Amino acid sequence: MKKQPKFLQIIFSYLLMTVGVVFLTVGVYFFKIPNGFVTGGVSGIGTVLGKALPILSSATWIAVINILLLLVGFIFVGKETGIRTTYCSLAFSFFSMILEKLVPVTAPLTTQPFLELVYAILLTAVGSAIMFSQSASSGGTDIVALILKKYSRLNVGQALLYSDFLICLSSFITFGVEVGLFSLAGLFAKAFLVDGIIDNINSCKYFVVITDKPEEVSAYVISELNHSVTTHKVVGGFSGTDKTMIHTVCHRIDAIRLRRKVKEIDPNAFTVITTTSEIVGRGFRGV
Length: 287
Fold this sequence. Notes:
By secondary structure, the chain is α+β, with helices and mostly antiparallel strands. The chain contains ten helices and four strands. Strands 2-3-1-4 form a four-stranded antiparallel β-sheet. The chain is elongated and about 80 Å long. The relative contact order is 0.12.
């Protein structure tokens, strides 16, 4: 399998970001705003301001604040991430305003606030995690989270928690204690959920293969999977025979293929496969 051209990778990345924006928009527009859930972010600020200062709608407040904070993003998180964040931010604002015109929502969809909180958190967390996995964000306080992640040891979930906590507290004043408590619970849930989803998206498989046919296994990994290998000689403790141990990592989509091919090349090979939450290096993620 040859490596895809760079422009195809970019197109795929932007398609993923668009999917993430759609999840985020649906979660915010249909579940967060009607219920007044303020779990942080610009959507949280927009929800509060839409209620406290109704001269502009919540979606319009979101657009205005996003534009202002995007300037900060370009300065601190770099040009590439800034461009991707700009795309996601504008798409989020665009989809929100389109939904306002096509599907006006003035009240919660159900009479079950906890159910709606669950969907608000799930949809927005999945959307945010997809965007973060592509070095992007929806803008706003997500940019603050990216800055904190870049210049500190915080992971994305922790950075989101710290940057959104004060915004969440404002829901107690604007919407009352009940909505405030729901919002606070949602904030903590989202912080942990985003990290879990990102880890799952970024997870890869680490292979340790002990084999008598290292050349064939290595050739398959290099030529078909476009990854390298590390090899060294070992001696079997039970058999006392010389063998070769191969170390390599691959994406989950390639793991089944590699496992099957190793078995095909050397039926007697001993293979250990573990899941890694992140691989940093050439062919995977940058430092």
